[in-house]
């Protein structure tokens, strides 16, 4: 009788163990089903990469949501290589139903490849209507820039030359070849304009740019600029500290903006985090213009900048606002001269901050059409130089200014960052530690743990 009771107890225990196992299995299956249902209903991503490689930028998402016509992205490559691009382009199609992605093997569809002029594998074409553009690479930056070019068409930025302005093709620290490439990526063609020769601005110029003139413009040139902007033209005026430009300053003063002949010094200790000097104001305070609204929580750098003052009195046909302001720890050095050996605050002569280092304004013409011209003025042309363009929000500030001037407000945002390679730098000692730990340490630890468990059970 005892052995029957023992067998019955064992069977009951087995049944209970089996029931528990079945219950746990059902719970796990239910959790898996619930997680899959939640993920299917809520398409949420967590991008933990340092440069947000698997997340679309604010600008890209904004452009996709505001598409007003269907766009097709063609990826021409071998079938085995399509998977490398599905991650990025899948994010595009998930944001907008107007964007369709097609993966094409040029060997199987040679006619379509010939239609778009495809010559190499890995080519990405963005097409909308009767217009198509080849993306410069398969990164978000390349694809979004191609999308902008297809949507907006060609723009032209005319850089005035002949007064010691920055070199558009210069590759040195103070050159402008990087901003030229950035403009080209966003569908802005750049041209040099010798205003003193033509005394006219070509009709195909979307805007004119003065990039750090070292000599003042002639009164006749200023008058051409005045009529151009009052007639609905657009201008980006980048002036430098220590350069006297009375004629250009008079043009701005007529529009209620005073360009001070000074140098801005900002003693805010926060700038030390970035390793900048007091003569390079770090800007974190912005105005209400659409140009700077996306720059919240981002810093811009204005090296060797002069300041501006927006007049409080009303001037007919002109309206101006401050874009970027320094901190209360700043001051200006009035009548600054680059030959000064010592720069310090002089009570009664120099001004205490905050000081405006960039302004934007509109000008309404006197004609019956009431056309609206626009201008943006910065206190330094170094903000667009090769050595400072990539600093924090500098590139976005400049391109947002360009977009606002060309009335492309829908493009104003934070742009996708260029892809960055991630490197792991280790010393020789650290490499030896990794070698011994990974090749010898961990395997020996596993073997020792196994021997210890075996010995205990034995």
Explain the overall architecture.
By secondary structure, the protein is α/β, with parallel strands linked by helices. The chain folds into three domains: 16-45; 58-147, Glutaredoxin; 154-411, Class I glutamine amidotransferase (GATase) domain (Rossmann fold), CATH 3.40.50. It is built from eleven helices and 18 strands. It has helices spanning 2-41, 58-65, 83-95, 110-115, 140-152, 177-185, 195-198, 219-230, 246-253, 394-405, 428-457; strands spanning 71-76, 99-104, 123-128, 131-134, 155-160, 188-193, 207-211, 234-238, 257-259, 262-266, 282-283, 285-286, 300-301, 308-310, 318-325, 330-334, 356-364, 372-378. The strands form five sheets. An eight-stranded mixed sheet has the order 6-5-7-8-18-17-15-12, sandwiched between helices. A four-stranded mixed sheet has the order 2-1-3-4. Helix 6 (177-185) links the parallel strand 5 and strand 6 (188-193). It is globular, with a radius of gyration of 31 Å.
Structural features:
globular, 458 residues, single chain, 18 strands, alpha/beta, Glutaredoxin, Rossmann fold, eight-stranded mixed β-sheet, four-stranded mixed β-sheet, 3 domains
List the helices and strands and how they pair.
Layout: H1 2-41, H2 58-65, E1 71-76, H3 83-95, E2 99-104, H4 110-115, E3 123-128, E4 131-134, H5 140-152, E5 155-160, H6 177-185, E6 188-193, H7 195-198, E7 207-211, H8 219-230, E8 234-238, H9 246-253, E9 257-259, E10 262-266, E11 282-283, E12 285-286, E13 300-301, E14 308-310, E15 318-325, E16 330-334, E17 356-364, E18 372-378, H10 394-405, H11 428-457
Parallel strand pairs: 1-2, 5-6, 5-7, 7-8, 8-18
Antiparallel strand pairs: 1-3, 3-4, 9-14, 10-16, 11-13, 12-15, 15-17, 17-18
